Amino acid sequence: MKDGFLGNHASFMLDAIVVALVLLVPVLIFSLYSVKWKRRFQRHRNLQLALAVTLLVAVFAFEFDLHWVQGGWKKVVSKGPPLSAEQADTIRQALRIHLIFAVTTPFLWATTIICALLRFPHPPAPGKHSRLHALLGWTSAVDLLLTSLTGLVFYYVAFINRG
Question: For residues 92 and 11, what is the distance between their CA atoms, to the nearest angstrom?
Answer without folding.
Answer: 18
